[in-house]
Amino acid sequence: MSTHICDALIVACIDFRFQKYIQNWLTKKFKNKTYDYVGFAGSTKNLDIIMNQLDISVRLHHIKQVILIHHEDCGAYGKESTHDRHAKDLKKAEKLINKKYPDLKVDLYYLHLDGEFEEIK
């Protein structure tokens, strides 16, 4: 059985309004790199499902990095779609990932409606 290795797992929402921004950003940021991509409503809102996908990506593709992207005006969050809520959920996901996979680099982003990527620290 051959081994398939890629650089990262990208997790973002399915919202069509942001796909062009995400693809353009990935084309620049991941030039000459490979990644697994998970598109899921609310991005990491349902963390159990995302962790399952992460487990598979780690096991099968030996990733070294995880990029989590939430966005402004997310329908999956409804009225709870605030910058603070997204930042809190991103940090919660990062903490869980770091606990389970301490060697993975985790980057968090909040994508604005105008296409600006804001890094969450």
From TrEMBL:
GO molecular function: carbonate dehydratase activity; zinc ion binding
InterPro entries: Carbonic_anhydrase_sf (IPR036874), Pro_CA_2 (IPR046871)
Residues forming coiled coils: none
A Pfam family recorded for this sequence: Pro_CA_2
Name of the protein this chain belongs to: Carbonic anhydrase
Source taxonomy: Bacteria, Candidatus Roizmaniibacteriota
